[in-house]
Every structure is written in C-alpha cells, then in structure tokens.
Design goal:
The complex is a heterodimer of chains A (550) and B (264). Helix content of chain A is 38%, strand content 21%. With 550 residues, chain A is α/β, with parallel strands linked by helices. Classes of the chains: A alpha/beta (550), B alpha/beta (264).
Chain lengths: 550, 264
C-alpha cells in the first residue's frame, strides 16, 4: 500500500493547533516520512478556525492531499467543516469534552488535562498522543519528540501525554520507513538560515504577515546566528536604514509583504542608482491592498519586476519550497554583493509559512563570496567605469578613500552631474545588467520535473510548483519551474521548452502574471489555470483542468 | 584644512548656506586637526533640497540620500560601523514635512548621529512653498494668499521625542554656529542643531532674525522644564515682540541606540 497520509488538526486560535500539527509532523518525520504542513489561519488572535493539514508520505509531496485520513478536532467547527473531506476509511479523533459525535473516537482531553493539573492549552498534547496511540506509534518516539518540541512545563505535558496514551486504544499500525529523518523548516526559517550562511549581519523589518516570522525567528536566535534584528518605525525606514548599513559594509536583508514593499519602492530605486547591495524578501499575500493577510496569492510578480522609477538592474528570485529558500537566499545575498544591486526574493504565504522536509546538505553547495573590493591603488572612485559594469567597493572608514554614494545621477567619484555625460553612468549600469544575465545562465535558474520527453508542459512557480509536480507526475507530462525570473534565463528556458508543443501556466492570481512574463520573452503560453481564492492548488484541481486544456 | 571638492557651487549668490558650509568646514577641520579625529571616519548623509548640495561640496564620505529619509540612512551607517561620525544634513521641508516620523524615532532611540537642520522655512529648490516651520500667512507659490497653517516648534518636538542634545544656531553667525556643530558632533547620542537660515531669494528674514536673536547662557542644560521655557521664548510665528534665543538648550547623557543594540 502507498504510504501517503493526510492528517488535519484544527481548533480555535489559541488552542495550539499549529504547534500540535508541527509535533505530529515531527513524529512522522522520526518514522522516516517526508512531511509537508499546510497552515490555514485567520487574521485574529482568539476564536475563529485555524487548522494545519499534514501530508506524511514515503514520497516527498509539497501539496495537500484532497482527502483527509485522520481528522483531529479540538473544537466542533473543525469537525463540521472538514468531515465532508474525510476519506473512505478516514478516522475522526475528537475532543470529547467539547464535541458530541456519533462517528469517530472521542477522547476526554480537557478532563485528562485538568486532572493532571495542566493548563487548557495542554489539551492538544492529550489529543496528539491519543491519536498516536490509535495509529500505533510507540511511546518512546512520542516522549522523544514531545521532549524536544515542548519548551515549557515539559514534565506536566508528559504526565498528560502518558495518561492519554494509557486511556486510548490502538486500532491500526502505521509502519516505519527505514531512513534518516530530514529537518523540518518553514520557508521563512529557511530563507533566514540561507542568508545567515552567506554572512548576514543585519535584518531590518517592520511586522507584516506573512513575512513577520523571519524577524521573529532571527530575533530568537540572534546570538547563535550573530545577526542583529532591528525593527524601525516603518518600511520606508527599514529599507533606508538597511541601505545605510550596507553602504557602511554590513550585509543586510529586509523582509515584508506586498503593501510594505510598495512603501519601499522609492528606496528600491535608490539601491539601484546608488548601487547598494540589499536582499529584499517580499512574501506575497492576497491583494490588492490589505487583501487577505493570512491567505495566499501570487499577485506581485509583475510589481516586483517593474517596481521603482527609472531603469536599473535587479535580480528577482522566486523559490517554491523551504529547501529552495535555503539555497537561493544564500545565493541571493552573494549576488546582491557581487553586483551591488537589489535582489528581490519573492515568496508567497504558503512558501513562507508552510513546513517542508529539507535536506540541509544543500547549504554545503554554497559559500559566502567576497564582493569585488578596491585594490587601494590611486584615487578611489565609488562609481569607476568598468567593462563589466561592476565598480570595486570600499567603505567609509577606509584610509585614503573618499566614498561617495548618491541618489542623484553622478560622475565616477559620486558627485552630482546633469551634463550629457550622465549617459556613461547609465551605460555602466546596463553593462552590469549584461554581466548579470550571463551569470544567471550559469546558475540553476530553471528546474524541470516530471516526464522530460513530454510534448505537453506546465509552468508553475512558488508554492504552485508543489501541486503542479504531483499533477505532472500523475499525467506523465513535463513541469517547468522558473526560479530566477530576472534577469530572465532565456537560454535555460529555451532548453526546458525543447520539444514542447503545448504550454499551460499555473498560477495563484487573476491575470496570469508568469504567462505575461513568458509572453514578453517571446514564449507562447497556450493556456492558463488560475485560482485566486487564497488557497493553494490541489493536484487534482490542476489535473482536471489540464485534461480539458491539453 | 581643505575640504572642498571640484563640484561647482550652484547656490544663489549670497545664500546663507555658504555661511553654514563654512561653519561645518571649520568644525570638522578642527576636529581632525586639533582633536585628532580621523577624516575617513566622517560620513555625511543628506536629503534633497538646497541643503543637500553640501555633500557634493565637501570632500568627505557621504551618502546623498532620499528626500526625508536620510536620518534612516544615517542610523544604518552608525549601526554598521559605530566608529564613524555620522552627520546628517537635512532641510525643513525634508525632515519636518516629508520625514518627520524618522526625526521623532531617531531622537526617541537616542541614535548617536548629528542632525543639522537647514531651516530656511520654505521649500526653496521647488521655487517656494510653505513648510512646517513657515509662519502662518506665508506667501509661497502654492499659497498666493498666504498659508493658513500655523508652524510648529521643532525644538519642542525633539525635546518631547527624546533628543539628548538640542541647539539652535544662526547661519550668519559662523563662529558661534561652528562651536555648536562641534559640540553636537562631540556629543554622544542624538544631537540636533536647528539652523535658522534666511532664504534671501524667497524669504529674506535677515532683519527679523538679527533684531531678535540673542545668545543663551549655557546653564541648566539637563533640566527639561527650564529647557522648555527657553524653547518657548519663540514659537516660529512672526510675533513682533518675540526674542529668539540661540545656543545650546539641552544636553543630557543616556545610553545610545547603537550601544544597546551592539552590546552583546
């Protein structure tokens, strides 16, 4: 039998369903399963309905399974809303103290918790453990995972767990897969870790979902990572401070979502003009405007590609899972410094906040690179005209150098000029862009999955890559994932498209923004599958629509 | 010490900006030549406006930033390398209008930077519109019948925000201004120097200032209540009887933002 399980745990905000979901995922990870957690929550602090849907499988999937094999309900809402999605042999485990149900297995999780002297939120421990017993997971594994994951009141939680384990009955047996567990990371955690690997010094951010957890994660681990986290008064200050510190030699990253990025755009142009390195994480959420803060759309692609007044070179990189976040943020920080220009790291809510199985070894493939420094000979010119368009760096404090950066068009020394000479400087920056283009072709900019020989191909980016991959494998067609989108990897894309007769773009937006990008590169897109209700694709949705289009 | 660049000066002939530039040059030269500060450790930032041109005219490290935003840039520089002496040149439209929140928060943090405000009390480079410190009734190109808004008192604002050094100078009292700038740079913490700068083309209030200006005695610098009384001697209106104090109003010591961020 195919080992591929779907577990949904839900409750009100404040009942700890997210933490519980992560613990369940870690239990399966210990058993050798690859896991993916989809997080669904609302923009509120208490009440409402939150859930985590875990996919634990022998094969690595990065999308939700359509049906639920185990439905774990902390509250009545969870049961009522998700019962319809239960698979044929699906099992319901519910909070008997809150829910009356004829179907499924009720556990008195609140009663157990109270009897053991626990806090109400610890009831989720009782539910997890009750479920684990039902599916035949050994106590040793539970004790191990709970011990690692629960930070407070571990003794008390273990007491509650033990009681729940003893009172629940075992019904079936989930088999172990003999292989090493991977590490589990959200895309946001991975993006932070990648940048740390290539020497991040400062992270500046103003809170905005779904980017906030990057700031929180780095702030918690400041000493370990040797990174300083600064929370300025608004996003405009975030980017201008970051540019100041990069100008003075510190490697900086900033993070926000679409609305915050919109506020930063004037300074994005400043980064381009002043040639100041910066890694900018833009984690998309549903728009326009405030949109849907905790739900997803891939609606900012065209915005980040064209944001900023005037022409200036930039990189846009859009990873589709946590492992890619890890590798490409490390790469992104290197690129920002090598080319002294902004790098936009485009995530989406589900890449940012969902949890993925990650192979840490990917980081061994990348090292921190030194930018091109001034050779300390002659007079220093911040904007020296060079063939490849890159002017060697020096920082204020450097003896015998005057370092002048500017938002104005400027001469080589950095002094404002308005004569016709200015064209030379724009030409220099455009030569830099040509150098960047060449570099992109040498990097893993486009990934191809599925049946490489198929004449039918789909293109998907960001989180949509996960469900698209499953659909491509099931339909035996090709999937193309563009990761570096600007400068556009023209040659790599041509190679990926070789032999393809029909191409369909799969995106979480209303207009097909990636299809427009491809069109602008002379690539014909024959169809689009678009979804914009805030929820990522299911593989089955894609398959059904593709059958009509291909 | 020669601190000039080859950049051609484009201020209006006779602009009091020349006075401020001279005071800045003297202050920085003295700090380098007499006090042994390193030239390479000075960094200037500025916004956009007549004041911004200073950084093109000074042969020192600089980041010519965005309108209203250079205090952010200045704080970023200081965080990345606390050995640097960071001096931000800002204008009244620049920092009292466009970037007011950054002024408040930089003062609140006690970031160890020096802010020199070139307050000519109008947007001059865009051919004269009212700013936050223009007097009510100011006739600019956008307010031909006179502006209807009252000015605010920036010294009162930065005191309330948490600045640890507050001074006011006059562009045409160069030696006095030089001393203020020097003390501001030497102050550990957020130092703020408001410079009254007549705009001889659009708002020539030289006579108004020169009839009213007097130098403050340097005493009770750490007393907030007394400071507030001194600050309130003049409310930036065109009040006939008002007298305008210049000098240091306030100075206290407090841990700086950068010390607190970087201590571990």
């Amino acid at each position: 039998m195919l080992k591929d399980f779907s577990i949904l745990i839900g409750g009100e905000a404040g009942q700890g369903s997210r933490m519980a979901g992560l613990i369940i995922a870690k239990i399966f990870n210990q058993l050798g399963y690859r896991v993916y957690i989809y997080e669904d929550y609302q923009s509120l602090i208490r009440g409402g309905h939150n859930f985590s849907q875990i996919r634990a499988a022998e094969k690595e999937f990065q999308s939700r399974k359509e049906k639920i094999d185990f439905l774990l309900a902390l509250d009545k809402n969870t049961l009522n809303l998700h019962k319809k999605d239960l698979s044929k042999n699906g099992v319901i485990v519910f909070n008997k103290d809150k829910i009356r149900s004829k179907e499924g297995i009720g556990i008195e999780i609140e009663k157990i918790t109270k009897e053991m002297g626990g806090l109400p939120v610890m009831a989720n421990t009782a539910l997890i453990v009750g479920f684990a017993k039902i599916v035949g997971i050994k106590w040793q594994i539970l004790e191990d995972v709970l011990g690692k994951e629960i930070k407070r009141e571990i003794e008390l939680n273990l007491k509650i767990a033990k009681r729940s384990y003893e009172t629940s009955k075992n019904l079936l047996k989930i088999e172990k897969i003999k292989r090493e567990p991977k590490i589990l990371l959200t895309g946001n955690e991975a993006a932070a870790l990648g940048a740390v690997k290539t020497g991040l010094n400062f992270y500046f951010a103003y809170p905005m979902t779904p980017a906030t957890s990057i700031m929180n994660f780095l702030a918690r681990e400041e000493e370990k990572f040797k990174v300083k986290v600064i929370q300025p008064e608004n996003e405009i200050s975030v980017i201008n401070m970051a540019l100041g510190s990069a100008f003075a030699g510190a490697k900086t990253m900033i993070g926000t979502s679409g609305g915050g990025f919109a506020l930063m755009v004037e300074a994005l142009s400043l980064a381009g003009q002043s040639e100041t390195p910066i890694l900018i994480i833009e984690s998309q959420r549903g728009g326009p405007s405030t949109g849907m803060p905790t739900y997803n759309l891939q609606g900012d692609l065209l915005f980040v590609l064209s944001a900023g007044h005037g022409d200036f070179p930039r990189f846009v990189i859009a990873p589709g899972d946590a492992e890619q976040c890890l590798y490409y943020s490390a790469l992104g920080l290197n690129l920002a410094w090598k080319y002294q220009t902004p790098v936009i790291f485009l995530l989406d809510k589900d890449v940012s906040e969902n949890t993925f199985s990650v192979d840490e070894k990917i980081l061994e493939k990348i090292q921190s690179q030194n930018p091109i420094f001034w050779d300390k000979k002659g007079e220093y010119k911040r904007y020296k005209i060079t063939d490849n368009g890159i002017s060697p760096l020096a920082f204020p404090g450097e003896k015998n150098a005057i370092v002048k950066a500017s938002s104005y068009e400027h001469d080589e020394f950095g002094i404002t000029i308005e004569s016709e000479e200015i064209e030379k400087m724009q030409k220099k920056r455009m030569r830099k862009y040509e150098t960047m283009k060449k570099e992109v072709e040498k990097l893993p900019a486009v990934k191809v999955y599925g049946n490489r020989k198929s004449k039918k191909a789909i293109v998907a980016w960001g989180i949509s890559k996960g469900a698209a991959m499953e659909a491509a494998e099931n339909l035996r067609i090709k999937l193309i994932q563009p990761i570096i989108i600007e400068p556009f990897p023209k040659k790599q894309m041509e190679t990926a498209l070789k032999g393809v007769k029909k191409l369909v773009s799969i995106e979480l937006n209303a207009t097909g923004q990636m299809a427009k990008v491809l069109n602008s590169q002379g690539i014909k897109v024959d169809g689009k599958i678009l979804k914009y209700n805030g929820r990522p694709f299911l593989a089955k949705e894609i398959e059904e629509k593709l059958k009509k289009l291909l | 010490m020669k601190l000039d660049t080859y950049c051609q000066n484009t201020w209006c002939p006779g602009c009091p900006n020349f006075g401020i530039l001279e005071a800045v040059k003297r202050a920085i030269s003295e700090l380098i030549e007499k006090d042994g500060k390193k030239r390479e450790n000075f960094v200037l930032t500025c916004g956009i406006g007549c004041h911004g041109k200073n950084v093109d005219y000074l042969n020192l490290n600089s980041f010519y930033g965005l309108h209203g935003r250079c205090l952010c840039t200045a704080q970023g520089i200081k965080l990345a390398n606390p050995n640097l002496k960071v001096i931000a040149f800002v204008g009244d439209g620049d920092i009292y209008n466009e970037g007011i929140c950054h002024l408040i928060h930089a003062a609140k943090r006690n970031s160890d930077i020096t802010v020199l405000v070139y307050d000519n009390r109008n947007f001059a480079l865009t051919v004269s519109q009212f700013t936050a410190t223009s007097p009510k009734g100011f006739k600019g190109s956008s307010t031909p019948k006179g502006s209807i808004e009252e000015p605010f008192n920036p010294l009162e604002l930065v005191l309330a925000s948490g600045a640890t050094f507050i001074a006011r100078g006059y562009a045409l009292k160069i030696e006095h201004l030089k001393d203020l700038i020097k003390k501001a740079i030497e102050h550990k913490g957020f130092s703020f120097v408001e410079i009254l700068q007549p705009c001889i083309t659009f708002f020539d209030n030289r006579k108004f200032y020169e009839e009213r200006i007097y130098e403050l005695e340097e005493k009770d610098l750490s007393l907030k209540e007394k400071t507030l009384m001194k600050i309130r001697k003049w409310d930036y209106s065109d009040g006939e009887g008002a007298r305008i104090p210049i000098g240091i109003f306030y100075q206290i010591q407090k841990p700086t933002f950068e010390e607190l961020v970087l201590r571990s």
